[in-house]
Amino acid sequence: MIGSEPEPRITPSPNIWHWPEVYERENRAQDSTGALWGALRARCDWAGRDVVDVGCGDGFHLEVFAESARSVIGIEPHAPLVERARRRVAGLAGVDVRRAPAQRLPLADASVDLVHARTAYFFGPGCQPGLAEAERVLRPGGTLAIIDLDGSCEPYGKWMRADAPRFDPPAVERFFQLHGFDSEQVRTVWRFDDRAELAEVLGIEFSPKVARRALREVSGCALEVGYRVRIRTRPLGLLRGS
Q1: Residue-wise pLDDT tens digits, 187-215
Q2: How far is it, in rounded angstroms, from Cα 169 to Cα 147?
Q3: Is 139 helix (H, G, I), strand (E, B) or coil?
Q4: By the number of CB atoms within 10 A of the CB, which of 39, 158, 209, 212 ranks highest?
Q5: What is the pLDDT of residues 112-128, one digit of tens each?
Q6: In terms of C-beta distances under 8 Å and separation of at least 24 residues, what long-range contacts does 62-65 make, across chains too?
């Protein structure tokens, strides 16, 4: 499948690649209400099915899928995170972690039922190669589910735009609509043990100036954060172009 094609470009993650321990605490704080998992399960229940988590990082979400899925494969391009993920899921039946980029999944055609990606790779224009790979490995009727932060939702979106003034949330939404996705806004709550933990997480997500501003604007140890849950189902008949 790969042949002599050039290696795909991998963009380093600005947070988990450098601060995996802090990102672990961030993962634990996110979705304290369970709203994201509830929205995902309502649209594409993975019980008894084969799941792939693209950009799985250190495998935080693999255990949740493994509770009811038939099989779970985590895909991650960064070798240190692959090793952390493998240690996390060691002993879990039907769970595997493989090192690969989203643009070149080490999976057979039409071999999985759900391709899931959460705040990883699929950020809008430019992710077309990954979309095509997801479509390739999905069985007819299978689902590609992309969960990402909603850059239009305050206050988190305001801080994102402050650090990335060229970031255009409406343009991102138009991109995914053009590529056949249904998008649902889901609000959940990040809940931390204390203010120090909150400050630590904001510090790996934003520039120092914006992180300080964000900390001032959050009272207590919790904040509401908006996401987009984007769903596309592979047709049962002919392939759809990506």
Answers
A1: 999 999 999 999 999 999 999 999 999 99
A2: 14
A3: strand
A4: 39
A5: 999 999 999 999 999 99
A6: 62/88, 62/89, 62/92, 62/95, 62/97, 63/88, 63/89, 63/92, 64/37, 65/116
CATH H-level superfamily of 20-149+168-189+224-233 = Vaccinia Virus protein VP39 (3.40.50.150)
What's the predicted TM-score (pTM) here? 0.93
Residues 199 and 26: beta-carbon distance below 8 Å: no
At 238 the pLDDT is 53
- Kindly tell me the number of DSSP H helices and DSSP E strands found in the chain: 9, 7
Q: Six-digit token pair at 88?
A: 């996390």
Q: Give residue 5's pLDDT.
A: 63
